[in-house]
Design goal:
The protein is α+β, with helices and mostly antiparallel strands and 165 residues long. It has helices at 3-16, 24-40, 66-82, 86-93, 100-104, 138-153, 157-160; strands at 18-19, 46-51, 54-60, 117-122, 126-134. The protein has one domain: Beta-Lactamase, CATH 3.30.450.150. Helix 2 (24-40) crosses helix 6. A five-stranded mixed sheet has the order 1-4-5-2-3. Strand 2 (46-51) and strand 3 form a beta hairpin. The relative contact order is 0.21.
């Protein structure tokens, strides 16, 4: 699958995976689902689910390092700023070989356009937060969040997932 197909599929994921509400209960359910998927697969990841300005779920699994928390913060900042997944923002920059520093003047110390942070959109309200995973290759981080959102929303992950690279 090429870059344009990936961008189209990520945009579809962002449109389709909308929550009816976003509260502490939904954040907990999504966070536990992410943690469970990671534990079952033996993945060393950090999981963060937040409404902007308010962390609601956080877990650091065995094998992670403090740097993973920094990646979570930087990826989540991208979602908060652009209301798009960090993976989509990175994919859009790729053909131009640009960074957010070059394009927007944003410091790399605070913004990471690597996959793994996905916007939490409430139907009728817009983007209110993010779910972020860090510890895997960026496409796998992104897809783990998409898979968990599909499970929470009762959606068919196979119909929305990215194709293998």
């Amino acid at each position: 699958m090429g870059l344009s197909e990936d961008l189209e599929r990520v945009a579809l994921q962002e449109r389709e995976l909308q929550l009816p509400r976003m509260d502490a209960r939904v954040a907990w359910e999504l966070g536990v689902r992410l943690r469970t998927l990671a534990e079952e697969r033996g993945l060393a990841v950090v999981v963060d689910v937040r409404r902007f300005g308010q962390p609601l779920f956080y877990a650091a699994l065995e094998g992670t390092a403090p740097d993973h928390a920094e990646w979570v913060r930087r990826k989540s900042n991208v979602v908060a700023r652009f209301h798009r997944s960090s993976y989509a923002v990175g994919l859009k920059l790729k053909p131009k070989n640009e960074t957010l520093t070059e394009q927007q003047g944003l410091p790399l110390a605070d913004y990471a356009t690597h996959g793994g942070s996905f916007p939490l959109t409430v139907t009728g309200a817009g983007v209110v937060g993010s779910a972020t995973v860090s510890g895997l290759p960026q496409r796998a981080d992104h897809e783990l969040v998409v898979e968990a959102l599909c499970a929470v929303l009762g959606r068919d992950y196979a119909a929305l997932r990215l194709e293998a690279e």
